[in-house]
From TrEMBL:
InterPro entries: KR_dom (IPR057326), NAD(P)-bd_dom_sf (IPR036291), Sc_DH/Rdtase_CS (IPR020904), SDR_fam (IPR002347). Residues 6-176 form the Ketoreductase domain. The lineage of its organism: Bacteria, Bacillati, Actinomycetota, Actinomycetes, Pseudonocardiales. This is SDR family oxidoreductase. Belongs to the short-chain dehydrogenases/reductases (SDR) family. Transmembrane segments: none annotated. Keywords: Oxidoreductase. It comes from Amycolatopsis rhabdoformis. Signal peptide: none annotated. It comes from the Bacteria.
């Protein structure tokens, strides 16, 4: 796949899944916009790694749970590159192993601000600004389709965007803009699985995966890059599950 001449904006891309997605898109020739909220050094490292592929890379700090920050992010991308062709709404917050009875109002407000409000307005701005023939991709979680103990709040906060994708695919179809969701399972080496304290939980999840392993950031980056390319031009309004058969 060749993404030369394309501009890709990836939220939450200073580490983890977002980092892997940025580098895969850069490897395929896309100029990239790297978004972060706190870790400037990590974002600058991603910038250098992306530019090593011979593309241009912009780093922009923005809290994408705030609408003003989202608008500023798109303003910066278009000021730097003149357009946006690919948007990946990746930024999110993982909070699992919390029974419904233990969820506080503060927990609820935080996760819905980051995982529901944030992607909604990232997609709103994408719909307003993306070039015709563009690609909009959200990163969800298979907790939206595979009920598990302790993920009631997290899974619920990720559900709404999947519905929005289907509606937006219809609204943007006349402009040949595709809108899809990648639905990963648990990702080894990312999120809560960077903490050895969660190794037992990880082992219990592996037992649920027919393929016998958790996913990697590269697995998800590959699926995302496919949806960003020309070969996926007739795929829209879909949820592409990448979880080793857990669903």
């Amino acid at each position: 796949m060749n993404l030369s001449g394309k501009v890709a904006l990836v939220t939450g891309s200073s580490k983890g899944l977002g980092r892997a997605i940025v580098l895969r898109l850069a490897e395929q020739g896309a100029d990239v916009v790297i978004n972060y909220s706190r870790d400037a050094a990590a974002a600058e490292e991603v910038q250098k790694a992306a530019e090593a592929h011979g593309v241009k890379a912009l780093v922009h700090a923005a809290d994408v749970s705030q609408v003003d920050g989202i608008v500023d992010l798109y303003d910066a991308a278009i000021a730097a590159f003149g357009k946006v062709d690919i948007v990946v709404a990746n930024a999110g917050m993982e909070k699992v192993n919390i029974p419904v009875t233990d969820v506080t109002e503060e927990d609820f407000d935080l996760l819905f601000r980051v995982n529901t409000k944030g992607p909604y307005f990232v997609l709103r701005e994408a719909a307003r600004r993306i070039a015709d023939g563009g690609r909009i991709i959200t990163i969800s979680s298979n907790t939206t389709t595979v009920p598990q103990l302790g993920v009631g709040l997290y899974g619920t906060s990720k559900v709404a965007t999947g519905y929005l994708v289907k509606v937006l695919a219809m609204e943007l179809g006349p402009r040949r803009v595709t809108v899809n969701t990648v639905v990963p399972g648990p990702i080894d080496g990312a999120g809560i699985f960077t903490d050895p304290a969660n190794d037992e939980y990880k082992r219990s999840l592996i037992e649920m995966v027919p393929i016998g392993r958790l996913g990697t950031t590269e697995d998800v980056a590959g699926v995302t890059a496919f949806l960003a390319g020309d070969d996926a031009g007739l795929i829209t309004g879909q949820q592409l599950v990448c979880d080793g058969g857990m669903h």
